[in-house]
Design a protein that fits this description.
The protein has about 150 residues and is α+β, with helices and mostly antiparallel strands. The chain has one domain (about 1-145): Roll (Nuclear Transport Factor 2, Chain: A), CATH 3.10.450. The chain contains 3 helices and 6 strands; from the N terminus they run H-H-E-E-H-E-E-E-E. It has helices spanning about 1-45, 50-55, 70-80, and strands at about 55-65, 70, 80-100, 100-115, 115-130, 135-145. Strands 2-1-6-5-4-3 form a 6-stranded mixed β-sheet. A hairpin with a 2-residue loop joins strand 5 and strand 6 (about 135-145). The longest helix is centred in the first third of the chain and has 46 residues, at about 1-45. The protein is globular. The protein starts with a helix and ends with a strand.
Length: about 150
C-alpha cells in the first residue's frame, strides 16, 4: 500500500510538472505572438504601409495619448502624416489575459517624421492584443511620453 501511494504521488508530481511546463510554453508562445504583433504594427508605420497598419487594429479599438482617446478611423487618418524611421523596444513585458489575448507594456525610443516635422521620442506604451480567427488585432493602446 505504501509503495502504491508513493507511485501515485510520483505520477501526480510528474503530471503536474508536465502541465506546468506546458503552461509556461503556452505563455511563452503567447508572449512571442503579442510582441510580434506589436512589432508588425510598428514596422507598418516604418514602411508606410497604412493598409497593413489598419489591418492590425480592431474596428472597435481605442487608442489614447496626450491628445485624448481616438477611434480606429481617427488613428488611421492621423498616421497618414506619420512615418517612423527607426525604433527600439526595451523593457518588454507581456501579461497573458486569456489564451488568445495579452497586455504588452514596453518602452520605445523612436525617430521619424510627423506631419512634416522630424522628431525623436521616448515613449512608454501599453497595448492589448487579441487573436480573432487566427489573426492578431490591437484593441487598445496607450502612450505616455517618457524621459
Amino acid at each position: 500500500m505504501f509503495h502504491a501511494t508513493i507511485s501515485r504521488l510520483a505520477g501526480f508530481s510528474i503530471l503536474t510538472a508536465l502541465l506546468c511546463v506546458g503552461q509556461q510554453s503556452s505563455q511563452s508562445g503567447l508572449q512571442d505572438q503579442v510582441v510580434a504583433a506589436e512589432r508588425a504594427e510598428l514596422d507598418a508605420l516604418k514602411s508606410g504601409d497604412l493598409a497593413a497598419f489598419a489591418d492590425l487594429i480592431a474596428d472597435e479599438a481605442i487608442f489614447a495619448d496626450a491628445a485624448g482617446p481616438a477611434t480606429k478611423a481617427q488613428i488611421v487618418k492621423n498616421v497618414a502624416g506619420f512615418r517612423l524611421h527607426d525604433y527600439t523596444m526595451s523593457n518588454i513585458q507581456v501579461l497573458p489575459l486569456s489564451a488568445d489575448s495579452g497586455l504588452i507594456v514596453y518602452r520605445v525610443a523612436q525617430t521619424g517624421t510627423s506631419h512634416g516635422q522630424e522628431f525623436t521620442a521616448k515613449v512608454l506604451v501599453s497595448a492589448i492584443w487579441t487573436r480573432r480567427n487566427g489573426k492578431w488585432v490591437c484593441l487598445f493602446s496607450q502612450e505616455t511620453a517618457a524621459n
